[in-house]
Automatic annotation (TrEMBL), chains A, B:
Record keywords: Acyltransferase, Amino-acid biosynthesis, Arginine biosynthesis, Autocatalytic cleavage, Cytoplasm, Multifunctional enzyme, Transferase
HAMAP family hit by this protein: ArgJ
Lineage: Bacteria, Pseudomonadati, Pseudomonadota, Gammaproteobacteria, Litorivivens
Originating gene: argJ
The protein's name: Arginine biosynthesis bifunctional protein ArgJ
Positions that bind substrate: 153, 177, 188, 275, 399, 404
Site (Cleavage): 187-188
Record text on subunit structure and interactions: Heterotetramer of two alpha and two beta chains.
Stored Gene3D superfamilies: ArgJ beta chain, C-terminal domain, L-amino peptidase D-ALA esterase/amidase
Catalytic site: 188 (nucleophile)
Organism field: Litorivivens lipolytica
Length: 404, 404
């Protein structure tokens, strides 16, 4: 199951970014499970990674390599997360970078490795090394959709977005994947995006950190932060023009807006394809004293198993929303002041059922696949929005049978 | 579904506590849904209530009444939580106390009201008032099992425990209920226990607070703290003997131990009957720097949807346990030092699969209905244990069809 059509726009190539797809047979024979990105010399690359203390070997190696200079290649495999694999996992991640370096003539430290799939199984390095040699010759700018397919695990469909940045010569294109173990903390597993704009490394990293915080870090499927989350943004500069090296530079605002839209679409695409999802839900908390408490409230409601099963049942169960809100850790919350609406229908006010509420209106509000739950706290001017899914039988089925 | 036989021991009456059961037809006609406790004059009563900011009208009224003196009656209804019902709910809770006072000759402030069931629907006061008059005449010391039945909602079986306190003339007996919206914070909906020991009000309250913290506050079914949690401990003093007014008093230690066992059994009974439960799981975190971080780790693992679905599948998925641990908020956690065992089989060590692990041993360890997941952090001497259940299809079915 997944919410919405999942139709993708035209994916514009980004000058300076080439892609190749391979099949290493990591989990299943014949499946496209390897993706190689080549980044033109002179590109700048920014990345954010999972804050999970138990982070995968490739995340550790990618962090290390990023420090030593600008990457030329990104190597991504699915079917195996290379997490919880100890020193052997670290060696495998390093060795896969060396293999790319040997084939392409770059340094191993100019390759960033990414893995997604089963935790705790040894990365089948020999299979990857056997599949790699065919890739460099097939590198091509037009393979973003293939790459989106190539990084899927329990995803039911590819996730991608692309746009020409208005009023500028620039393009932005990106892909993402993920369906379960989704509550990114600094980034999500996996997002890759590129622009042909020329952007300095500092500005690119601060753009990415800010935008990831407002997009990937605002989604949750099951509250389980992955061990492998990683999000990468590349600026090749191939479109030319003045270097964007500060927020006052020409086109900075337009590029920022386009990247925010790109990342928001990619992050929401992960929620729409959340494991077992039948609903796409925005939980909007307004009127908070500060953004931190709005976020706490929004995530607590979005992750409550009782709220999520009510969403699955299309039940306008505002009592469960208020109960979740009541345990969100806002010590001096006055529930009598809280108003809750679902798709515009006020369901609760003054700590109880809204006077104007009718069961028919509530049922009608809950019926659509896409919902907005709006919670007004009446404590200040801060607001935050988090996107989530419901909790269905298919979530249990998928996770009782798939060993992540 | 539920875990274990659910067989109950003999429930000893507690001198000074009488019980009556009634049928008000609150949710379904004919169901036993009213329980009245009468406490002998001179009894002391301690109580702890939910810390959810969105707390039910009866919780607010019970707190108020407790302040003004020692209660003589406890009135409990199921089928309606009287939560999220605003001023009308407060009036209904107060009025139900007045009705008991009129029938029994006590003051309304000597009655504590308790409700459990659907949130957000008006309490059908007229039905309760109509059913109450038959109750006082049927008050009887031998009805603890009937009371355990009378307070059930989605529970599949009654929960009760009773013991003669060794080396003392005292008896302790108690009942509890609850299956979903279970992560008590200071107490759980609902626990009622009594002893015939003579205990001063101060000592009784501190005994209850301490014991509730170590029993009810260590269980979680779905992480959703209820709006109606309440736990009451009555000491009638009818067994006579010296007043227990300090922790140095004779019999204090024995009584404390008996009450801790009573509350632990009652709390665990709620987990064993958790909504859709097929497993009863102790998550034990040892070697922590302090108890707070052990608790954070234990609750994060116990509430992870991915860990819970793996438990449902009897899958020894240690990767999900480590992933949950990694996001538990222990900032300087060194995953390389963590050891995880399931029912004594070491599954993970040094951040990866244990050398000694075999899949056959892992599968065998996961097979039983009752499991202990032991997580050793190697950071200090603190430890904590939390009890929980798995996440099954039935949890989704129950909560997609029951409006709590």
């Amino acid at each position: 199951m997944a919410v919405g059509s999942g139709a993708l726009p035209e994916l514009h190539p980004v000058a300076g970014v080439k892609i190749a797809i391979g099949s290493a047979g990591i989990k299943k024979p014949g499946r496209k499970d390897l993706v190689l990105f080549e980044l033109a010399e002179g590109s700048t690359t920014a990345a954010v990674f999972t804050q999970n203390r138990f982070c995968a070997a490739p995340v550790q190696v990618a962090r290390e390599h990023l420090k030593s200079g600008s990457p030329r290649y990104l190597l991504i495999n699915t079917g195996n997360a290379n997490a919880g694999t100890g020193q052997r996992g670290m060696q495998a991640a390093r060795r896969s970078c060396e293999a790319v370096a040997e084939l392409t003539g770059c340094k191993a430290s100019e390759v960033l490795p990414f893995s997604t799939g089963v935790i705790g199984e040894t990365l089948p390095l020999a299979k990857i090394e056997a599949a790699l040699p065919t890739l460099p010759a097939s590198l091509n700018e037009g393979l973003w959709l293939d790459a989106a397919h190539g990084i899927m695990t329990t995803d039911t469909r590819p996730k991608a977005w692309s746009a020409k940045v208005e009023g500028t010569p620039y393009t932005v294109t990106g892909i993402s994947k993920g369906a379960g173990m989704i509550k990114p903390n600094m980034a999500t597993m996996l997002g890759f995006a590129a622009t042909d704009a020329p952007v300095s490394a500092d500005v690119l990293q601060s753009l990415l950190s800010d935008i990831a915080e407002r997009s990937f870090n605002r989604i949750t499927v099951d509250g389980d932060t992955s061990t492998n989350d990683a999000c990468v943004l590349v600026a090749t500069g191939k479109a030319g023009g003045e270097l964007i090296d500060s927020s006052d530079a020409p086109h900075y605002q337009a590029l920022q807006a386009a990247l925010l839209e790109l990342f928001t679409v990619l992050a929401q695409a992960i929620v729409r394809d959340g494991e077992g999802a039948t609903k796409f839900v925005a939980v909007k908390v307004e009127g908070g004293a500060n953004r931190a408490e709005c976020l706490k409230a929004a995530f607590t409601v979005a992750e409550s198993p009782l709220v999520k099963t009510a969403l699955f049942a299309s039940d306008p169960n505002w009592g469960r929303i208020l109960a979740a809100l009541g345990r969100a850790g806002i010590d001096d919350l006055d529930v009598e002041k809280v108003t809750v609406s679902i798709n515009g229908v006020v369901v609760a006010e003054a700590g109880g059922l809204a006077e104007s509420y009718t069961e028919a209106a509530g049922q009608a509000a809950m019926a659509p696949e896409e919902l907005t739950i709006c919670i007004y706290l009446d404590r200040g001017d801060a607001s935050e929005t988090v996107w989530t899914t419901d909790f269905s039988h298919d979530y249990v089925t998928i996770n009782a049978s798939y060993r992540s």
